[in-house]
Each structure stands twice: as structure tokens, then as C-alpha cells.
Amino acid sequence: MSAKQKQSFLHGALILMIATMIVKIIGYFFKVPLKGIIGVSGFGYFNAAYGLFNTLYALSVAGMPVAVARMVAQNMQKGRYRDVRKIKRLSTGAFLLSGLLGTALMLLGAGPYVRMAQNPNAFLAVFIMAPAIFFVCVSSSYRGYYEGLRNMYPTALSQVAEALVKLALGLLFASAAVRMGLEEYETAGTVFGTAVSTPEQAQLAALPYGAAGAILGIVLSTAAGSLFLWAYTRRRGDGITPQMLDQAAPAQKSGQLLKELWAIAIPICLGALALNITTLIDVSSLTNRLSAAMENGEAVLLSMYQGVLPASTPKEEIPNYLFGAYNMSVTLFHLIPALTTTFGVSALPAVTTAWAAGNRTLLRRNIESVWRVTSLIAFPAGFGVCALAEPILTLVYKADPASIPIAAPILRVLGIAAIFVALSSPTNSMLQAVGKVNVPVQLMLLGGFLKLAVNFVLVPVPSVNIQGAPYGTLLCYGLIVCISIPVLCRSAGISIRPGEVFLKPLFAGALCGAAAWTGYGLFSRLTGNTVSTLLSILLAGVVYVVALFLVRGVAKYDVLMLPKGEKIAKLLEKYRLIG
Smallest Cα–Cα separation from 387: which of 524, 513, 474? Predict the structure, then answer.
């Protein structure tokens, strides 16, 4: 692609971040009404399917887009355009095969998985989710290729298209399934063939089908994303002209390219799998360990949530209810890493190019910029979520406030954990870019073991129960970040300026959190939760921006990578607001 077509790391990240924000806004309008349709218990079934899907996707193909992007970026830097095209053809076949295998594995494993998780009502949702692996693999073949070409528009646009289809069809199918179940009860006394005796039991019996309906909408949305990328490629191409191909060296042998592709992809696949281990650990162990907490001290656990748990909830459903409340916090917690993951996706080809060219100065600048920009988002967001956990949950889930007292303490801990999760993803991408593809695998396995240990030790304690789970996430990712940052610096042969990269954003972010907490304490005495929360967020944002510019926490190099960056940098330099 021409220099004009290529996007800088920050420009590409900005495209992906805007798309991610749009997707998350659409996701809000999906998940909040969905929770009203299928309830907290149905949300537990929904997340059981989604957690297994993420893990099997990671096992099937998650490393392939990264490997393709890295190899495409390397060969574009060397002008080996025939290799670039050949990598696309070879990887497409590998994606399709992996997608079929992943789908088959999820179909066959649905029964054993829900039995192990002691969540049998999630079976239908898990089973229906399986084809999504195939369609996501198809989409990933296109996304990895374009990301290696440093063109983030196909990824961004296809993500938004998927989200819109998921919103429309997911809610439609979920509400239709629940309505059909309740209508059947009114006429025949059964819900999808199962006899029930009360309206409350009918509602509970319909929830697994409502969750499965939402999952079906997601499956169709992944198919729509694949179709969009196919159409985009047919219309726009990849920017490699016939003249560029004529002047390029002959392509390497298929066997050699495949060997290199798998050598990169397999460790990254394992790393992506390890990254999802925390989710898999939660979905497969939390309901099990919460059942143990009920056995160890049912009276203690019930007294802890007296007046919070719905009176109609059967005792055997309490673990799944607590798991659903936990996932209310996890949904908000994931918003922060979702934004910073875009930096890793966009940074990988840029860091790979600098690494392949042996340009240590550019490499150091790119790595520092990735960490600094990630910190500029992660610290204020993490501290802000921690400070406003309960008000934010009340704002988002105001239609169903009963489970907020359970979810709020969880979200406070996850707010701090989100800072480390946000830093870990771009760091892993940069480790992969400099050839250290095994390091993220090793660190995630170590962190996953720590997470599993916390779940097994703390969650069965009746007085702790679900409140122990977020501490495992915090310890897991805190350990990973503290080890991976020095490893990357040593591997890349660079030294960074920690004050410029981490400490300035940390200082401004801490002030942001303090302002949010203080502001809500004042505003909540004068007005309701919605206005108080929004005013507190606004106040915290103003304090953060002022503090950040006072300590000159934004670097000129970062600004120059933005669209029209030179004009913005000159304006900020005029007032001495950038470093």
C-alpha cells in the first residue's frame, strides 16, 4: 500500500477505538434490554455459552490473525508483495479448517461442558453458539490481512456491522423465545414441553430458551460480518497493484511460508487461549465453587444477601444468580480493555516494521507511545470505575436494581484490575512483534494458575463467595504486567522513561478517581443518581485533562501520529501543554 494509504499506529488505533466505542454503545443497548428479557439467571446461561465460545475461538484460530498481520507487515517492509498475496491464500485455507474444527468441538463438547460447570440449563445456548466459531474465523482471515497492511477500516466497519445485526436479531429472538414459552404455559401448562405448576416456574423455565435466542442472533451477526468483509475485499482490494507484483521477487514455497506461519501462530494461539483462561476458569468453576459455598454454610451466605436475593429464587439456582450478578460487573469491566486492545492490534505491524528494519530509535518511540497512550486511558478509567462502581451500575441497570448490591463491590476491585488487563494486551502484542511469542503464553498460564487458586480457595468460603472472584483477576493480571514490561524492554534492547510513560498518567488518573468519588458525594446530596453520576464523570474528566496537561503527560510524538497531528502539536506547543 502507498504511504498515503498506510495508517500510523495511533491513527489506526483511533479508527479501531472509535469503532469499539460504537460497538460498546450498541452492546449496551443489547445487553441491558437482554437482561430485562432473560433476567440475571438467563444472563448466567448466556455468559456460560459466550465464555466457552471465546475459549474455543482462541484455541481454533485467535493466533492466526496476529501471525498473518506480522508476516504481511514484514513482507510489505521488504517489498515481497508476491509473498503477501500467497500468505493471504494459504492462511484463508487454514482459517476455514480451524473454524470447522472449532465448531465441531463446541458441538460435541456442549454436554460435557455444562455438566462440568453444573449449569445444565446453559446447554441449548452453548450448542447454538457453535457455528459462530466458523464465521468468526472467516472474518479473522480478512481482518488479519488488512491489519498487516496497516488498514484498520475493514476491521472497524465489520465490527460495527456485526454489532448492529446482533442488536436487532439477538433481542428479537430472545424476546420471541420467552414469549413463546409463556404463551405455551398459559394454554397447555408447559414450557417447550416441560410441565410447570406456577407462573414463576414458567418464567424460570423460559429463560434458557431466551438466552439461546440471544445467542442465535449473535451467530447470525458473525455471519453478517463475514459477508461484509467478503464484499469489501471484492470492491476495494488490497492496494497491491500488478506493477508492484511484477517488480517483486518470486514468492517463497508454500511449505516454507506455512511453516513460518504456524511457528508464529501456534504460540500466539496458546497465548490467546491463556488470555481467555480467566474467563473459562470463571464460567467453569464459579457456579461449582458457589455450590460448595452453599454446602459449607448456606445460612451465612443467605444472611449476607438477605433482602437482595429474590424470594422466588430456588436454592439450587442461587449459584447461577450470583454468577449472573458477577457478570453484570464483568460486562462493564471489559469496556476498558476493549478500548486498549485496539492499540495492540494497531501497534503490532508498526512495531514489527521497526523491528524488521533494525531501527532501535523508532522501536523505542513506538513502544513508549503504545504504553503511554494505553496508560492515558487505563488509569483514569480504572480509578473512575472503582470510585463510581455502585452509581454506574445503578445508571446502567436501573431497570433491575436488585442485584446491584452484589455486583458493586465486585466492580470496585475489577476497576483496578482493568488497569492491568488494559496494559497486558498491547504488551503481549508487542512481545509477539519482536519475536517473543512464547512469553505471553508462559505468563498467562502462570496468571491463570493464580486465578484458579483464588477461585478454589476463596469462593467456597460462605462469607466471601462470589466476592472473592475479582481478586483472582486482579492478582492474575497484576503479576503478568509486572513481569512482561521488563521482559519486553530487555528483548527489544531498549530502555524507557517510566516517569513519562506510566507515572504521569498514574498521577493524573488518581486525581481523576478522587474527583469522581468526591463529586458524587456532593452531587448525590442535591440530585438523583443519574444526574449525580454524569456530573461526577464530567468533573473527573475536567480534573484529569487539566492535571494531564499541567504535568505535560502527552508527548509530541503521540500527537504527530494523529490525523492533522502537526497542526494540533503546534497549538499545544504554543501553550507548552505537551512534552
Answer: 513
What ranges in 169-198 are assigned the alpha helix state H?
171-188
Per the DSSP assignment, residues forming a β-bridge with 194 are 191
| 575 CB-contact burial (10 Å; exposed 0-12 / middle 13-18 / buried 19+) | exposed
CB 375 within 8 A of CB 501: yes
Point out which residues pair with 191 in neighbouring strands.
194
439's grid cell:
512469553
- Gap between the Cα atoms of 182 and 206, Å rounded: 7
Crossing angle, helix 360-387 and helix 404-433, to 10 degrees? 180
C-beta separation of 61 from 99 below 8 A: yes
b or e along 40-72 (b: 16 or more beta carbons within 10 Å of the residue's beta carbon)?
Answer: bbbbbbbbbbbbbbbbbbbbbbbbbbbbbbbbb
CA 444/CA 271 separation, integer angstroms: 7
User: Nearest Cα to 539, choosing from 556, 515, 555?
Assistant: 515
Burial code of 191-211, b = ≥16 C-beta within 10 A, e = fewer? beeeebeeeebbbbbbbbbbb
Give the C-alpha separation, 139 to 225, whole Å. Answer: 7
pLDDT digits (tens, 9 = 90+) for 344-399: 777 777 788 888 888 888 899 889 988 998 999 999 999 999 999 999 999 988 75
- Give the Cα separation of 164 and 220 in Å (integer): 11
Identify the pLDDT of residue 3.
39
Structural contact between residues 459 and 286, judged by C-beta atoms closer than 8 angstroms: yes
* CA distance linking residue 300 with residue 316, whole number of Å: 16
Q: How far is Cα 514 from Cα 536, in angstroms, rounded to an integer?
A: 10
Residue type, 156: A
pLDDT at residue number 214:
94
Q: Are 299 and 470 in contact (CB under 8 A)?
A: no
Contacts of residue 306, Cβ cutoff 8 Å, sequence gap at least 6: none
Which residues have a Cβ under 8 Å from the Cβ of 571 and sit 6 or more positions away? none
Find cell 475536567 and name the residue: 542
E strands, 485-551, are: none
